[in-house]
Amino acid sequence: MDNKQVAKIFYDIAGLLELKEENPFKIRAYQNAARSLEGLNENLQQLVASKQLQAVPGIGKAIAEKIEELLNTGTLKYYEELKASFPSTLFELLRVPNLGPKKIKALHDKLGIASLKELESACQENKLVDLKGFGKVTQDKILDGIKIATASLGSHLLGKILPIACEILEYLRKSKAIERVEIAGSTRRFKEIVNDLDFIASTKKPREVADYFLKLPFASGIIAKGETKVSVRLASPPLNVDLRIVKPSEFATALHHFTGSKEHNVAMRGFAKRKGYKINEYGIFKEGSEKPVKIESEEELYAFFGMDYIPPEMRENYGEVEAALEHRIPRLLEASEIRGLFHVHSVWSDGHDTLEDMIRGAYERGYKFVGISEHSKIAT
Predict the structure, then answer these.
(1) Residues 40 and 28 in one domain
(2) What range does the domain containing 343 cover?
(3) Using CA atoms, how far apart are residues 38 and 350, in angstroms rounded to an integer?
(4) Are strands 156-157 and 193-194 parallel, antiparallel or unpaired?
(5) CA distances from 228 to 13, 162, 206, 225 (A)
(6) Quick one: which of 140, 241, 353, 361 has the fewest CB in 10 Å?
(7) Is the pLDDT of residue 8 over 90?
């Protein structure tokens, strides 16, 4: 669990405490701790190990103990108890832009609203128009916010999910029963929006691997368990994690298949068929044969068909198969080649860091310039 994940939980705690009308000082303590953790460059595990956690501004003894509990167990008893005191659907409302805990509490107390669906119905029936602190303009803004929240429900930005994926990958690589394991799916293709996490692992001991995966420290529940697929649910962020368990000889083709995209796979299957072969997650087969071609890597898979290797980021069936056949796959941009950013925000509008933090972050990344593009106060 990284700094931003812990910060997210503390922001949630602050919001829940506001709903319960707790002491404002207690609420601010969690908000301050969350902000400190968001801007913290040091690794939390290292700070705990060196007993320097309480040296971080906003982190006192009580909050430090909660951070250690999260890092050691993947959960926080206090947080779970707070969540249990509210309808689970109430968290949906926190995703609506410009709808803070105070307004959510008013809606819950006065109209009994505890979900996005109930909120949308109330707005459509104009129940917020005469409600103190709301009115027609606010109701219209909330309706617009509901569309955004509904569209993004279950979706997460890659930047928030990638650190979690890397943490799970590191956990899986510690299993002696796993021979090879990699991230797959849209995360491996670096899509901006991620709906779930996919992993591929090869082994001769599938049950042992399945049991090990189910012990993932920060998993909140088991969705499915089998010898070829195991799925768990993460609580924060709410996310499904799937592990596909394959034979060592199937790893390369399974990784290719479950990396996707579906459109890329269809294009590859069509090309293979025209060449007299069948390709799926189990291997590459000559038509009429049940014996797979020996393939050890994705590079070998593409080379078998006379193609250049196609990076996962390009596998969307936008012409990459044809380009690979003609040996004109372009070189991908490296992070080290980025010179600067033009469109960033600070806390002055709807960003999460101060202007000073943004400039410092750009400098630490070696950028030569950064362009601040703030919204007007009226727009936010």
Answers:
(1) yes
(2) 335-372
(3) 15
(4) antiparallel
(5) 37, 24, 7, 8
(6) 140
(7) no
pLDDT band at 376 (very low <50, low <70, confident <90, very high): low
Instruction: For residue 379, tell me if it sits in a domain.
Output: no
Asked if residue 194 and residue 140 are part of one domain, the reply reads no
Q: Rounded to whole angstroms, how far apart are CA atoms 51 and 193?
A: 37
Identify whether 186 is preceded by a cis peptide bond (ω within 30 of 0). no
What integer pLDDT is reported at residue 380 of this predicted model? 47
The answer to whether residue 330 sits within a structural domain is no
Residues 74 and 39 in one domain: yes
The structural domain count of the chain equals 5
Q: Indicate whether 34 pLDDT > 70.
A: yes
pTM above 0.70, yes or no: no
* Residues 1 and 78 occupy one common structural domain: yes
Q: Are residues 169 and 222 in the same domain?
A: yes
User: Is there a domain that residue 12 lies in?
Assistant: yes
Cα separation, 30 vs 14, whole angstroms: 6
Beta strand 229-234 with 219-225 is: antiparallel
* Contact indicator for 42, 33 with CB cutoff of 8 Å: no
Same-domain pairing of 131 and 95: yes
Please enumerate in sequence order all residues whose Cβ is within 8 A of that of 379, keeping only pairs 6 or more positions apart, or say none. Answer: 349
Burial of 347 (0-12, 13-18, 19+ CB in 10 A): middle
Are 34 and 44 in contact by the 8 Å Cβ rule? The answer is: no
For residue 198, which of 168, 163, 177 has the smallest C-alpha distance?
Answer: 168
Do 44 and 103 share a domain, yes or no?
no
pLDDT tens track for 261-298:
999 999 999 999 999 999 999 999 999 999 999 999 99
In a domain, 236, yes or no: yes
- Selection from 301, 269, 304, 273 nearest residue 287 by Cα: 273
Long-range contact set of residues 124-133: C-beta below 8 Å, sequence gap at least 24 = 131/106, 131/107, 132/106, 133/103, 133/106
Residue 240, amino acid: N
